């Protein structure tokens, strides 16, 4: 193929089908693909050639691989609207944004300079405050900003810096000039999504990616992690990521980053401040947190000294920072730097604080608190947009959206400037450059902005070699936001030379030491315990429903009394008989999913996918299957999926506290459910066939046939389902296993002395071990069920509060 600068010739058919002529500039070709001479940049040639060689069906399969990866990994973001929130699949734009290493180095240098400037501004605002005193910053702009946190004035960070992980939203004009569009210094999101974009895109273009010298992302995260690990006081000190919780729009990414870096994910109510130290509530008691990576707005962190309306913070957090008992990144109050009005002053502050002008300017911004700025806006309203001075982020992310100054008549514009000037900024409207997006098999130009991440490492600021590109849903730049239909793309920084294959493995600085397993927060243990219970309860309900519909299919052959007995059992679970797959079953399964969603950082991708698929299957079947045989087959399919999920999770989880609480939930619910089934169906006055039904619900039909060469009797049923320790479905087996798990929990058994929970389980174990089928009448079974139910309360009091 001829180089980009060769004479133009007609495009080949496949190239024309993609909408691109590699050899001749065309109107509508994405700006990012064009060089200064108006022809396709060399860096884009391999991608275009790759697309050219792909038949449409093969290209569709390649792109589907990326979509399948994202779906199987459960990648989502939370979309808000009309008072509701829903999880949306991650909107990947499959074509990566390509950039030459030399160009990226220039961008990186400019952003590092800006990061140092923001660090200096932060140090002044919470230190000597010379910028305000010297007239370089308006006092009102700082004092009226809700993210300027007065209690943090004079509090020096223990690690020596205020900013540690920041991001910049940058955009390029069609003529090649880059601007900073917004500063992200509070708790920038997207780094985890950048990693997922990379994995998904490399699967879509596997052959191409392997041949390109694309800089890897792992080294950026490794160096940042190593810097934080080095800041610990001792080898086993704890690092945690503070999340607002699963209802946050980027919770998936927060959980993903925690798992990727090996940090603990905590919520505000997991934490407590004692004696100037931040402590996390764990199943082993309170344990100190040495370093907290904050992923929520600063004013919500401490309701005691900051925002009293916060329900997601931890009282006393500020006092822990003030006493030097905690490292936090980024420092509380860093959100003050994100105010849109601050961009009006940063270009003037740069020479004062760093001795240099900004290498990469930000979008032209005027704070309208002075008369001189009013005159400039009135003189050229056609290129100005007005927005709130203290708004953050990109102008087109704002709510309400910016107002074009030219859309107001001069009198109204003057009135707004006079009455609202200090609360407004004007920013020059810019046209963002476009990048290629594949829309229905054709390359289409779409506007883009880049979110670039910087982390403070042992060697200073390091820029992620890539980032997170936001791609417009249309050619309207206001459609970049995810909440407004935008998409995300990977960013490939391509080198002329081979790049090393970097991994997250730490550099070996001495003999290998096995790290202690991470402590388990009480909230996580609570969710794992209840997830185990809900999944087991779902299985029990499903078995009862299946048995009922089998009997309904056999209606007319004496099945009605058994149906009535099963309906009574269903009512003990709060279900009204009727629908083949009732709402109560879906609700129980949804409760399991909700509990799992609270511990995404401790849950494998396969486990989450299996549980989500299970819920999806049940919902799809509900209302679509007919009673009787059709419903029985559908419920059997659900049971198989439950078995697959349970095997996947229980066999693959690391055998530490998390697995133990999940197992305890399953064991407790099965013991309770089996006791209830036997008590209901193994009565002397039970209808004919109830004993066989009891064995069926206990999933022990084959075992009963092998163990007893006689037909079912009350004695054989109670012996097998309640007393036999060798039957994995029996009550005795569940209690034996509960005893084993409780003995391994912190404080379960110490120096031969059992905890209150341990003693209660031991009493249940002894009671069941010494009973006989004859002594276990209905009253005794009911009493046993009550004692088993009480174990949940004791476990909660001991570990889950």
Q: What is the topological layout?
A:
Elements (H helix, E strand, L loop, with lengths): L12 H6 L26 H9 L2 H17 L3 E6 L2 E6 L7 E4 H25 L4 H4 L5 H5 L21 E8 L5 E7 L6 H14 L1 H6 L6 H13 L8 E4 L8 H11 L2 E3 L4 E4 L2 E6 L2 E4 L2 E4 L22 H6 L4 E3 L16 H9 L10 E3 L3 H9 L4 E5 L14 E2 L5 H11 L3 E5 L5 E6 L2 E16 L2 E4 L4 E4 L15 E8 L27 H32 L6 H13 L10 H15 L7 H17 L7 H24 L4 H25 L8 H8 L3 H7 L6 H10 L7 H14 L4 E2 L2 E2 L1 H14 L8 H23 L1
Parallel strand pairs: 3-21, 6-7, 6-11, 11-12
Antiparallel strand pairs: 1-2, 4-5, 4-18, 8-9, 9-10, 13-16, 14-15, 14-16, 17-18, 18-19, 18-20, 20-21, 22-23
Helix pairs in contact: 3-7, 4-12, 15-16, 15-17, 15-19, 15-20, 17-18, 18-19, 20-21, 20-24, 20-26, 24-25, 25-26
Radius of gyration: 31 Å
Give the CA-CA distance, first to last residue: 68 Å
Fraction of helical residues = 40-55%
What form results from the Cα inertia axes?
Answer: elongated
Average of pLDDT: 88
What is the overall number of helices?
A: 26
Which structural category fits the helices and strands?
alpha+beta
Strand content: 5-15%
Indicate the low-confidence ranges by residue numbers. 1-12, 22-26
Q: Please report the total strand number as a whole number.
A: 23
Largest sheet: 8 strands, mixed
